[in-house]
Amino acid sequence: MLRHTRLAGESADYLAAREELRVAEIELMRHREKVADQRRTLPQGPPVDDYAFIEGPADLDAGDAPVSEVTLSGLFTAPDRPLIVYHLMYGKLQTEPCPMCTMWIDGFNGIARHIARNADFVIAAAADPPALRQHARNRGWHRLRLLSCGDSTFKYDMGSEDKDGTQDSTVSVFTRDGDGTVRHSYSAHPRMADDIDERGIDLLAPVWHLLDLTPQGRGDWYPSLDY
Asked: Is 46 left (phi over 0), alpha (psi -120 to 50) or beta?
């Protein structure tokens, strides 16, 4: 039995249950690694259009103009680097920024420099650049590349927007071939099945996992833009 503390007051029942939990956590870790390997070894994905995005100045505090256009292929900064796109639920029918997405992106802003060592990473939203950038300034997202999807069908094609403009949170991964062809590698959405509509991308948010360590768990807690 592996002891996790040096506390003397742990009962035999507690120690037995903790050991059972440790074994279950090992099984979960191994299964998670198996799933990650399955994700990495997906067959080659289909080529995609070279979608065009709109972005403002690199310095978030430099205002919202001038705006420039950048293509999906132009978001790759070097060969053999994947591109990760987080789809923020903001714009069109989502007239206010999604609090859940905002919480996740708060975290992404903190670790962006670490992600950049291995992958390119951007935030894409249906909102126009001024609205998107103002929300980013309110949150202090100075380390992230922020893109408006403009008139492109990017979000619709990736399943993060329906034909009416209803938004959904999504994460997408792309690769670029040697000849410049961009391919879709992987996308994930909150809805995993008819009875699972909010857990599909929980792995992106450490908040949930920290709360799950506590006796109360996550319960019905939901993030707020007030924080």
From this structure: beta
